[in-house]
Design goal:
Largest sheet: none
Shape: globular
Strand content: under 5%
Number of helices: 9
Distance between the termini: 56 Å
Helix content: 55-70%
Oligomer: single chain
Number of strands: 0
Length: 177
């Protein structure tokens, strides 16, 4: 038996994920060198994350979380003797920034577990120990689902999230090996 929820159209959050999947996958592919060899790519990965987050810093509603992540990355990079190469910031909707930042926390949790499984163990940088913020993610998803999927706001957010993924790709490409 189907319920009304089973027949409901997907909300904007689901459509945003579908419509930005190619950009997400392209950005994630750039980080495969870290995923495939976390020990060798750690400093590079942290530098790329810092460069991208710093370029997004001005727009987030989750400013405290983004500031914490950036500070953690700065400390981790200082410990590794690494200076990230900055990339030019972009002006995107704060909801798009939050989608990127909060979504990255989910992926970072997977990467943290992978680092913990390395033999011999890799010291876990503080960036990977930051809260995954599942409550903020759920709130953000609920907020996104209040947006009409066929609205100009939805189209604008989709474009901005794609630009954000491109920013992460550029930040990774800007970091030396």
């Amino acid at each position: 038996m189907t319920t009304p929820q089973d027949r409901a159209e997907p909300g904007f959050r689901h459509l945003l994920r579908v419509q930005t999947k190619a950009a997400h996958d392209t950005a994630e592919a750039v980080f495969s060198r870290f995923i495939n060899d976390p020990r060798a790519g750690l400093a590079w990965f942290l530098a790329a994350q810092h460069a991208a987050f710093a370029a997004l810093q001005h727009g987030a509603q989750t400013g405290a979380l983004l500031s914490d992540l950036t500070a953690r990355l700065e400390a981790d990079l200082a410990d590794l003797g690494r200076v990230p190469v900055a990339v030019r910031g972009i002006d995107i909707d704060p909801l798009a920034v939050d989608y990127l930042v909060l979504g990255s926390r989910l992926g970072t949790e997977v990467l943290r577990r992978r680092l913990m499984a390395e033999t011999p163990p890799v010291p876990i940088p503080s960036y990977f120990l930051a809260c995954a913020a599942p409550g903020l993610w759920r709130q953000h998803c609920a907020c996104l689902d209040t947006i009409a999927p066929d609205s100009p706001r939805a189209r604008h957010l989709t474009i901005d999230v794609i630009a954000g993924y491109e920013l992460f790709r550029r930040a990774a490409g800007a970091q030396p090996d």
